[in-house]
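User: Please run a holo structure prediction.
Assistant: Happy to. Please share the sequence and the ligand.
User: Here you go; the ligand is adenosine monophosphate.
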Amino acid sequence: MNTKRQDSNLAFPWKTSIGTSASQLALASNKFQTPCPPTPLLSPYWVAQNDALRSELGLDGQIWQSEPVLHALAGNAVLEGSHPTASVYSGHQFGVWAGQLGDGRAISLGVIDTPQGSQEIQLKGAGPTPYSRRGDGRAVLRSSIREFLASEAMHGLGIATTRALCITGSPTLVYREEAETAAVVTRVAPSFVRFGHFEHFAANDDIEALQSLADQVIAQHMPELLDLQGAQRYAALLQEVVQRTACMMAQWQSVGFCHGVMNTDNMSILGLTLDYGPFQFMDSFNPNHICNHSDTQGRYAFARQPQIANWNLYALAQALMPLIHDQDLVLSALQTFQTAYPHQLDVRMGAKLGMNFPLEGDRALMQNLLKLLHESRVDYTIFWRRLSHAVAESEHCSQSFEPVRDLFLNRQAFDDWQMGYLNRLDEKASPSSTTSTIARVSRQHIGQQMLRVNPKYVLRNHLGELAIRQAKAGDFGMIQELLNVLHSPFEEHTHFDTWAGFAPEWASSLDISCSS
Ligand code: AMP
Ligand code: MG
């Protein structure tokens, strides 16, 4: 097999003019990104393909399943019109300034026009870049499968995220704790710009590049801010990022998602979930859960995520200060997190409970529930799904809450909570009425709505692990099946019921570290 890079003749809808996307910014001046071709990978093969995303992007199936594209996405050819680059960024890691980082193993192929708007295509694990530092520029099959499935699972849940188009594998060995085989994930997003990109130029006192980056992000992704001038424009950018980040945090918390490495270089300026490493969808509920075994202090523990997001936003604000100058403007943009996050969380948690409008006492009801879930270490996803069914069936079946009750050690405490909950559900008031005149919505209807927001399936660690084990043995079937199920996690998919069950005993001993 010839692994020398070749030029491919594939017709490809790349945007022609450099500088049309934020991440192609300043290529000419070389401040933001550096030309960097991928390094060829020996004997590539398909590990997984995401047909649904390919259709969404309007990419031709014939071409995208072809040998030449396989080789191009493994770094053995450069697609016609593509100008591969790696970008530079800095960041705070575990709360400490880490200086320059950059795309150490992600190589951008460029931006294409799609029915979903402009999308950047990036190869993660495509070989060394000028920013690889001591790293090899590679990613292993195991972590690539996790990233592929996680991004698509998040999308299926309706959570803002980068997407994953396919995985290509290779027998080439990569050395982590042990020798593993290499893989490349083809990632897709409107932009991969991170908080750390802004921090980089601010730290280097390059205000021109900082402003240029901010203007590009605004022009490409927040054009409604273009009418604003000077400080107002950049304060509005900050506020937009605050809002998007607050929304993403509420989404993470509501589904029990732990990111694991919320460093500022892993925070997307568009509020997308980015860089899936030691992430985890929680099995049993524990607000103190730490999914990254390298996070010895628990900085990124589940319940701390919103507060850490806020901390990261302060780091971004600090970086934008040279464009805004006015501390009061910056602070008022930052302070919107304090209302946006609780509001977003109330909306999402309310919907999970089947309460579509807020009433006094709802937060207490929710907090009491989370306390009970924690005390009994109840499986988070199973609880919500069972609760949804219980509500839907409660008018016809007096025993409908039994499967929910069974999840708790302290049954009496659950009974007390349930009584308050059902009283609240049966409230006849609506937000628009001060009197209780609105017709009562049936519990069956409420339960059906709950089933549309409480997923049956999430990417539990053990499911990812089983798919990885099978893939290592050469069988990629489970990856594809999981992908299909996770794309519509609120559907029953009865054939895959076991994937909606409790995590097995061995799942708790899975060691998820930063090594990838
Ligand atoms: P992460 O913790 O995955 O967000 O990575 C932090 C930084 O390390 C980023 O700059 C990555 O590009 C870089 N990095 C991680 N793994 C590798 C690797 N195997 N080779 C080169 N750079 C890497
Ligand atoms: Mg990263």
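The chain has a mean pLDDT of 92.
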